[in-house]
Every structure is written in structure tokens, then in C-alpha cells.
């Protein structure tokens, strides 16, 4: 009798489990559907906008994604975020939330400090708003290319030291996981010579930019600013890690140009790790490579991003 009752009881439990287990299993094993998308022309400061590449999820609660801010180059006079849309898309495809801000270039900006101010505001906007796009503000990388590397480095140095920019001390920025500087000049060389060379080869736009932005002006070289500081006098440079990338055949910013900047960072900053990467290629190997679908350039770039800001 007892045995019969036990059998019936176990049978009832088995039926109950079979009825309720399926909905529970479906609820918690639901596959996440992700849609890659972009929010274009988001106003972040005055008349300036940025694009945010992010992932829409079918689930309400998802893990926040690491973030990459990309600062384009173009000799301080010819870049824009539209030319670098492929970079935003590529980062998004690889699991990152990417932010591509526009900033005024010459002749719309006649002072490097204007560009620094705008990049500073783009970083602040990202830190304040990126959670709305599923981004993790505690896991941010900033990438600069060419003039973008120079401006990124200058923005970090001036904000870390609280230096004046457009007449006001620049506020400290959130700490980045990594700063990735591609093919950057950290000292803008002989200005008069550069103007003469650009004029001779017909690059009048660049000649006018150098004349308007740098001639008879000071305070625009991050390397020189650090050189004036005492040994290990800077606690942090606003990042846990900094990577300098150079290319073997770079005729615009020759191989070795980053060495003095690296030495100044090592000499003056207490808490930072530094990596110097040299790859085969020319000045635009990475950014044009991504734009043109070069798999080797893509691989090099994303591996550098992932190394210090993991998914």
C-alpha cells in the first residue's frame, strides 16, 4: 500500500516537473538577438556632433560593453568622422561600442586649443552618456591617428596637469584603460620649413593650416610640455596603459618619431605601462587598411584594442 502511494507521489512530481520545467528553461535559455546600429550626428558640444556605434539587444539586461573613442587625423585641416565610418563599424562588429566625434579643423579652428577643448568635451560627453548605449565608462580606450594622436596626447597631458586651455584650466578626465596612438607627431617640427615644403609641392591647404595653427605660437607640443616636468612628478597620465604604434615606411611621421615622447612619459609619469609597436607599412596602413578591408590591418588594430581593454 505504502509502495503504491509512493509510486503515485513520484509520478505526480514527475508530471509537475515536466509541465513547469519547459517554460522556465525557455525563459532563461532565451538566445540574445543583437542588432548592430549607429546613432548618427548626436550633438555633444555647440555645433559639433558625433556618431555612436552600438548593439541593440533583445534582452533587457545585458552586460555592458567596452568603449572606444576614435579621434581621426588629417593634418589638422582635412579630417572628419564620415571618412572613418568603417572604423566605427569594424569596432562595433567586434563587440565594442565606438564613438567617433567631429571636431573643428583649420580654417574653422584657428587655434589648436580649440581642437583640444572640443576633444575634451567629446570625452566628457562619452563618459556621461555612453551607458545609454550599453557602454561601460570604466572600460574606455581612446585611439588617435596622426594629427588625432597629437591632439589626443596633448588633451591628456594638459588635462592631467590642469593646464590652461582657451584661458581656463582643463579639468581632469576619467581614467582610460588604454590610449592607442597611431603614427602620431608629438612635436610639430620646423614650422617655417614645413610651410615652405607644403607650398612647393602644391599642398596649399596644409601650408595654410601650419601657418595659421603653429607659426609664432607655443604650447602645442605634448612632448615639450613633459620635458619641462621633473622626474616622476606626474602621478598618472589619465590612462592605465599607453601604446605607441609606428610604421617602417612612414614618410609623413618617420619611424623613431615616437621615441622621445616615450622617454618623456617614462621619465615623468609614475603609474603607467607603455608599449611601443612597430609594423611594416606606411602612414595610413591601419586607418586606410580598415577602410579598404585589409584583413591584416584589421587584425593588427583589433588585437591592440583587445589587449588592454578586453571584451
Automatic annotation (TrEMBL):
What the entry lists under InterPro entries is as follows: AB_hydrolase_fold (IPR029058), BD-FAE-like_dom (IPR049492), GDXG_lipolytic_enzyme (IPR050300)
Query: Which UniProt keywords are listed?
Result: Hydrolase, Signal
Q: What are the coiled-coil residue ranges?
A: none
Which GO MF terms does the UniProt record name? hydrolase activity
Q: Which Gene3D superfamilies match?
A: alpha/beta hydrolase
Specify the signal sequence span. Answer: 1-21
Q: Does the keyword Signal apply?
A: yes
Q: Where would I find the BD-FAE-like domain in this sequence? A: 50-159
Q: Which SUPFAM superfamilies match?
A: alpha/beta-Hydrolases
Its recorded name reads: Alpha/beta-hydrolase
Q: What is the species of this protein?
A: Piromyces finnis
